[in-house]
Amino acid sequence: MTIRWFDEATQLLTRRVARGTSRRGFLGGLGTLLVGAGATTLLPVFRGGAFAQSSTALQESGDPNSCEYWRHCAIDGFLCGCCGGSSSSCPPGTVRSDITWIGTCRNPTDGKDYVISYNDCCGKSNCGRCVCQRDQGDTPLYRPQSSNDLNWCSGSQADMPYHCSLSVVIGVKE
Amino acid sequence: MAVRRIGLLTLAVLLLAGNAQATEPRQFDYMLNCQGCHLPDGSGNPGRSVPAFPGQLGKFLGVPGGREYLVQVPGSALSGLSDEALAGVLNWMLARFDARHLPADFKPYTGVEVRQWRGAVPADVETTRNRLLQRITEQEQRSGNPDR
Hints:
The complex is a heterodimer. By secondary structure, chain A is of the alpha+beta class. Helix content of chain A is about 20%, strand content about 20%. Chain B is an all-alpha fold. Chain B has one domain (about 25-145): Cytochrome c-like domain (Cytochrome Bc1 Complex, Chain D, domain 2, Orthogonal Bundle). The interface of A and B includes residues 46, 55, 99, 157 and 173 of A.
């Protein structure tokens, strides 16, 4: 008695599923899934946050590898962007000095003053490319707090030769 | 799909807006005048005579002469900051890096007292520092609680 009821229920369900679906439909779904999984990564999602620098909100213009670039307004050294790194990350094989010279530069695009950290990258000999010396706000060595003539590679935890300099945005003045 | 796209856009805009916030003015002064050597977290480089703030800075306020000393160290006294701005940065640093060791009756620094102490810096800062550290150690031994 019970078994017969079970049989009928199973049959009913199976037939309903068979009527409502098709083998081609299943293949189509599987195909969409396979292609879709690959295509998801191609969607135009903003990925600025995927990089180490937190300045994704910055409206700016200019070439970071040119000495005229606004962030380099007080730099004195070789631009890391020309040495295998970028204006905010050290080239492979070098270490970023934690001790650094910090100044401000005005961003011509939005007119705000940004705090820039000119960390040195250390561990290889002088890069020699894209030398840039702009020294805005630089003071003589007898006022060492605001002098950029110091080699931050000797003296910091990265106690080794100087290679190139970064210009990292770390703050903004209202 | 369109709804989801709009959702993503909104999220991106919100993230951007959060990033664009202006730096707190006293932190701004810290960045430009102190952070180059003392580092963003105040840990400094004790091996190269750049003292660490966390776990130490607030203790100076607990011994006689310590409050003046934080104004008179070369990094404070010789900085390009105005007296008011220096007072602000010191208050910010104490709260940010070592609030744990702030005395219960701590009164924030004012520009007036900073001006007075800044103009009378001890000739030998190193000796002053060692004497204060000695006092801090003695006080901790007396209270029997070395890391309060």
